[in-house]
Amino acid sequence: MQLGLIGLGKMGGNMRERIRRAGHTVIGYDRNPDVSDVGTLAELVERLDAPRTVWVMVPAGGATQSVVDELADLLSAGDTVVDGGNSRWTDDEKHAEELGAKGIGFVDAGVSGGVWGLENGYALMVGGDKDHVDRLQPIFEALKPEGPYGYVHAGKVGAGHFSKMVHNGIEYAMMQAYAEGWELLEAVDSVTDVREVFRSWQEGTVIRSWLLDLAVNALDADEHLEKLRGYAADSGEGRWTVEAAIDNAVPLPAITASLFARFASRQDDSPQMKMVAALRNQFGGHAVESSKG
Q1: Interval 109-127: pLDDT, tens
Q2: Were both Cys, which of 15, 26, 52, 254 would link to 79 (CB 3.0–4.6 Å)?
Q3: Sign of the alpha-carbon dihedral angle for 237, 183, 215, 208
């Protein structure tokens, strides 16, 4: 299958490689000419055979809107656009309507896997009309992890990004729990090897997880996280999750508290946020701030 892929950053570049390894043709475009296969979006569209499929992996908001607007003018009826970034689900509904007016299909895909996805595969949560989703199955199969799980057609347009938003909200709360436990262990005199306590949890415990494995990786690199500043940004999806909970009268005390904890990290150097920052760097390559000490 042929695919145009726009945005070849940390995830997009690895996705291009994984899809190519599965035997598909991927023509990638990025503003960085060193990684781009073509010079312009128009050239990308010209090199694809109809009906075309173009997957967008750019930052949510204005950047995604700009690309969708340009594709609306370049593509034809019968083509399909996939938004695989972290767009808000309400934007998906808008984009589907704008493109649908020209006969262009739209699918939203929540993608999880971070910088590890090239080798491990990407979990995919997809929203859109069945006929649009079905024609993309070869690409979804190439991207997903091996085995029966890791892909779901979650529902209509917006369902993919809504599901990924909730996934990220849960991720916030899980990271916060590990971070609070780590700080408490570090605070007492009786526990003399916190890193090995975390490592001991990796097998046989009910709290073992990939996030726990990544926490141990971070502690192996910097045992007491002394090189990090206790600051953790939020990408926006935690906020959207809390807003959706308010709109639907669903109580989310753990996720909401974890979001507010990140806000607190911007006021002073939080030990817990050192762990959250380390985990975000481990799974997503997100930037961290170095300690000034």
Answers
A1: 999 998 899 999 999 999 9
A2: 52
A3: negative
